[in-house]
Amino acid sequence: MTTQVRRETLAEGSAVGEASMEESLTTDRLGEPTEHRSWGAQAHERKGFFTDTSICIGCKACEVACKEWNSNPQDGTYELLESSYDNTGGLGANTWRHVAFIEQDGDRIEKARESGRKLVGLGMPTVGPPTGAATTPGAAASNEDAAASGGGCSGCGPSGCGPSGGGCGSGGGAQAGTTIEADLLSGLLDGDGTTADLSNVDTTPPDTADFRWLMSSDVCKHCTHAGCLDVCPTGALFRTEFGTVVVQNDVCNGCGTCVAGCPFGVIERRDDGTINTPTDRDDRSASEMDVHDEGTANKCTLCYDRLLEGQEPACSQTCPTQSIKFGDREDMVEQAEVRVRDLHAKGLTEARLYGANPHDGVGGTGSVFLLLDEPEVYGLPPDPRVPTKDLPGMWASAGAAALGMIGVAALSFLGGRR
Amino acid sequence: MTTSPYDSYRPPDGDRKRRRRGGGRGPAGGRGGRGGPGARGGSGGRGWLNRGADGGREMPMVEDVEFTSYYGRPIVKAPPWGDEISLYLFLGGLAGGSALLGLGAQITGRPALRSTTRLVSLGALGAGALALVEDLGRPERFLNMMRTVKITSPMSLGSWILGGFGSGAGVVAVIEVDRLTGERIPLGPLKPLRHVLHALETPAAIASVLLAAPLASYTGVLLGATAVPTWNAAGRNGLPVVFAASASAAAGGTAMVTTPLDQAGPARIFALAGTAAELVAMKVMKDRMHPVEVEPMETGEPGAKLHRAEMLAVAGGVATAALEVGVRLLDRRAARASGGSATVRGGRTALRVGLQVASAAAGAALAGASAYTRFGMLEAGIASTKDPRHVVEPQRDRLEARQAAGITHDSITTIG
C-alpha cells in the first residue's frame, strides 16, 4: 500500500524535475560550477548529506533502513567477504548505503595525520567562514545535538572504536573519558569553549593499543555535475527540485550508459537480486515478492519520496550517532567545515572533507563526507571528474575524424582506376 | 610443504595473498603505503597480527592493514556491456564506411561495388541495431532512446545518428534490391511510386552518407565519455579517430571480399588508408595515455585481441598494397597486349581468379582487424575497472601534478 502511494508521488514529482533538468541542460553543462546560477529557480533549497565518519560506530542501521524503506532486494548470498565487518561489499543497484570498515595500525594513523597536515600546507581552499569562527552558534548547537543523541557512546573517537563493545560504556573508563574530550563533545567539555590541543593526549580506546577502525557510510554523491545524468540517453535520470539526481524506473530502458558515467561507481543496473520474504502470508500477492524495477538503473534517490512529504531520508533519520546528517546542502557544508577545523585544532589532522569544494571535478557533491584518511582508503576516487567534461574535445575529434573519413573516401575514388 | 598433519586443514591461502598483493601493488607503493615488496616480509609491523591468536583478545579480521585501496575492490563500475556492444561498434563502423563507398560507386559508375556496399551497409546496420537492443536491460523500451535529444549523451546522439542513417540506408538498399530483382518488387497499386522511389536514390544516399561518418566515429565518444579509466583516457586522446579509421578498413576490406577485382579499386585504397590511419592513431593514442591506463590494452585477453588486430591489420595492409600494385600492372599489360593468344588470355584469367581470392583474404584480414580492435577496446575498458589501481594511480598523478604546478583550488579533498 505504501509502495503505491510512493510510486504516485514519484510520478507526480518527475514532471517538475524534467522541467528543471531541461533548464539546467541549457545553461549548466560543462561550464564552471554554477551551483547558484542555473539552480536558482528551484522550489526548494538543494538538499544533501553530511556524513561525519569520525562519529560513525559501524552499526549499519543506515544500510538496513535504506533497504527496508526502498524495498531493495537482497545482494549476494550472505557470504562473508573477509573485509573486517563489511560483508556488504559496496554500493550497487540493490545497496544504496554501504558501511566501509577499515582496520589500521599506528603507522597508518600517523601517515593519515601527515597527509592531512600536508593538505593544510598546500593551501587547500577554505570555502567557508574563516578559521576564527570555529565555535559559531550553529556549530555548537549541532555538536550538542550530536552529543545528546549519541547517547554517550563514548568509545568511538577519530582513532577508532571497538565494534565488539559497541563502544559504549564497557571497560577502561578513565581512558574513554579522554576520548570523549577528544572527539564527540568537542568544545563542550572544555567549558569556556576554548579548544585544547589534544594531539599529545592518549586517545586510544582500551584494547586497541595500536590500531583503529575507520567506519564510513558511503552513499550516492548527488553531484553538481552528475555524469550519470549527463549521459542518460532516455531522460530517465533527472535533477529533482531538491537538487538531487533520481532515476525514473518506468522510463529507464537499462542501456547501462550511466553505470559507466559515474566516477564513483554508484549507479548500477539491477540485473539480479532476490527477495526472501515469507511467501505464505495471505495479505501479500505474489507479484509483490518479485524483484521490482529489474533491468533498469538503480541508485540512492536521497529518499525523494520522503522529501516530497517533508520527511528526511531513512538513513539519516535512523542514524543513532548523527554521523549521517541531512539538511540544506549549504548548511551541511558549513557544519562540515566547522567540524574539520575543530578536529584540526585538536591535532587530529587526519580529518579532511570530501566533496565540499565547488571547484572540484564534479562541481562539489550533494553528499559531503568527513574522512580520516585518503579517499582511496575508503574506496573513493582521489580526483574524480565528470566524464562529460571532456565532451567538447571528444565531439570535436569525432567530427574531425568523420570529415577525414569522408575526405579519404573521396580521394579513394579519385585515385582508383576506372 | 606440510609440517604437521593439521596443516592440511588450513584453507588455501591463494585468496589472502591476492588481496594482500592488491593492496601492496596499489598506488601505495610509492606514496605512504607499504614500502614496496620488502615491507611485506617485515614482521616488525605485523606482530600485532598474531595477537589474540590464543583467544585472549579479539583477533584482527584483516591481516593487511596498510592498503590504499578498499580491499582491492573496484572503484568505478563496468557498464553491463558485453559482446553485443563490441559487435555493434564493429557493425556500425562497417555500415557507415560501406555507405560512403556506395555513394562513391554510384557517382563513379561502379554498379557492382555500389550494390554490394549498400546491401552490406543495411545488413550491418540491422544486425548492429539488433545487437544494441538485445543488450538493453529492458529491450521493449528501446524506443525511449528517441524520447529526448541530449548533446551531453553520446548514446542519445548516437541513437539519432543511427536512426537517421538507417532511414537513408534503408531507402537506398530497397532501391538496390529492386534493381537486382529486375524491378520486380511487387508494389501493387503503388506501382507508379517506383519512379518516385528511384528518384529518391541520390538524396537518400547523400543524407545517409552525411550521417555515415559520424556513425563510425561517435562510438569513440560513447566509450570516451565515461568514468572507465582506459576508455576515458583513450577518448581524450583520439579514440574517435581510431574508430573512424578502423571503420574505413572494415568497409574497404568487406568490399574487397564481396566485389569483383576491377571495381574494388577505391575500396582497396580506402581500406589501406584506413588501416594506416588506424595503426598510427592507435600508436599516438597509447603514447599520450597514462601507462596504467594503457596497461589493460596490453595485457590479458583484451591485450591479446588488440595485438591480433595489429598483426591482421599489418598483414592485410601489406597484402592489399601488393594486390593494388599487381592489379595495376596486370591492367597495364592487358592494355598493351590486348588480344594475344588464347593461352596468354587463359593465364591472365587464372591470375585474375588468384588475385580475386587474394583480395578476399586480404579484405577479410582487414575486416577482422577492425573487429578485433573493437572487441579489444571494449574489453580493455571493462578490465580497467576491475582493479582500482587503474582508477587511483592516474587520478593521483594528475592531482599531484596540478598541486606541484600550484593549482590547489580544485581538489575534491579539502580541509575546511
TrEMBL record, chain A:
Domain 4Fe-4S ferredoxin-type: 47-76, 211-242, 243-272
Entry-linked Pfam families: Fer4_11
GO molecular function: 4 iron, 4 sulfur cluster binding; metal ion binding
Extent of Low complexity compositional bias: 123-144
Chief place of localization: other
Superkingdom, natural source: Bacteria
Keyword tags: 4Fe-4S, Iron, Iron-sulfur, Membrane, Metal-binding, Repeat, Transmembrane, Transmembrane helix
Basic and acidic residues composition bias: residue spans: 1-10, 29-41
A GO-annotated cellular component: cell envelope
Compartment(s) of residence: Cell envelope
Chain positions covered by the region annotation Disordered: 1-41, 120-144
TM regions (residue ranges): 394-414
Protein name: Formate dehydrogenase iron-sulfur subunit
Organism name: Brevibacterium jeotgali
From TrEMBL, chain B:
Subcellular location: Cell membrane
Transmembrane segments: 85-107, 119-137, 157-175, 196-218, 238-258
Family matches, as Pfam families: NrfD
Keywords of this entry: Cell membrane, Membrane, Transmembrane, Transmembrane helix
Family the UniProt entry places it in: Belongs to the NrfD family.
Native source organism of the sequence: Brevibacterium jeotgali
PANTHER family: PROTEIN NRFD (PTHR34856:SF2)
InterPro entries in UniProt: Electron_transfer_protein, NrfD-like
Signal peptide start and end residues: none
Biased composition (Gly residues): 24-47
Region (Disordered): 1-55
Name this polypeptide is given: Formate-dependent nitrite reductase, membrane component NrfD
One GO cellular component term noted in the UniProt record for this chain: plasma membrane
Native organism taxonomy: Bacteria, Bacillati, Actinomycetota, Actinomycetes, Micrococcales
Membrane-topology descriptor: Multi-pass membrane protein
